[in-house]
Amino acid sequence: MSKLTEAANGVYVISVTPFDETGAIDWDSLDRVTDRYLEAGADGLTILGMMGEAPKMTADEAAEIVARVIARAGGVPVVVGVSAPGLAALKGLGLKAMDTGAAGVMVAPPGSLRTDAQIRGYYAMVCEALGRDVPVVLQDFPLVTGVQISDEALGAIIDDCPSVVMLKHEDWPGLAKISRLRAAEAGGRRHISVLCGNGGSFLPEEMARGADGAMTGFAYPEMMVEVVRAMNAGETARAHDVFDAYLPLIRYETQPGLGLAVRKHALWRRGWIASPALRKPGAGLDRETAAEVDRLIDRQARRLEEIG
């Protein structure tokens, strides 16, 4: 499998990890949801991310998921989340994933980092531990990590660490950050790919600011595929029309603490996974919440019919 580069673009769907009601990994559903993501037009997949319940996995389970999805993807790039409290675990999973055929690894900063110097030093250590041949995706997600990566720290990491080839942009508000990054590149800084998260909440605006696509796990990845295609084709009105049809469900899914359960419920309703179960600690939707999600999905379907 080819490795991730600064030219990466399109939609890299963050995959859920399906479980059955006992908490065991549902391997058949993992195969099926992988197939459905690719059928929806995904250019790549990202596994063991925060919304893939990676912290709930054993090391053996994580390695088996990596091998299973890479084999199933059939050459489509697979990025593996390897964030961990210590560098030893990060390096172990990262190198194993690359040996298995991963296109690159994704690393979020630990919540203990506070200063620009600490953040810059951390990513220097990560890149040194993994080696210069391992492409790294820097996940900038302060709403979850609590780590604020300034423009100056991000620029220094890009300058210092050639193996950082992509920014997973999830700062919020963060549209101006994309503009400043692209302006710095116009001024001579090395170009890196920018794929955006946050459930696709700001995807049309992010594309307009210079993002290369999306890396997130909204339950309807075809929305992201169509919005990215339309924006790249200059069909801005079409992109916003499609996005607006999905926006009520996007809004509901981005609720902190509830989003993954909403996402899994929608994927279960679509038949992509056999159960909406989360591995403990974690709970599914109560009856009233599930009914609200179902109502949004039904309204979304009607709106999509209206706009064609």
UniProtKB/TrEMBL annotation:
Gene3D superfamilies linked to this entry: Aldolase class I (3.20.20.70)
EC class (word): lyase
Family (UniProt): Belongs to the DapA family.
GO molecular function, a single term: N-acetylneuraminate lyase activity
EC number: 4.1.3.3, 4.2.1.41, 4.3.3.7
Protein name: Dihydrodipicolinate synthase family protein
Coiled-coil residue windows: none
InterPro entries: Aldolase_TIM, DapA-like
